[in-house]
Amino acid sequence: MARVKARRGPPSPLRDGSVPSGHAEPLRSERYERIYEAVRRIPRGRVATYGMVAMVAGYPRAARFAGLAMHHCDDPSVPCHRVVNASGGLAPHFASQRVRLQREGVRFAGRNVALRRYLWSPRLPDERGGVASSPRRAADRAR
Question: What's the pLDDT at 25?
Answer without folding.
Answer: 47
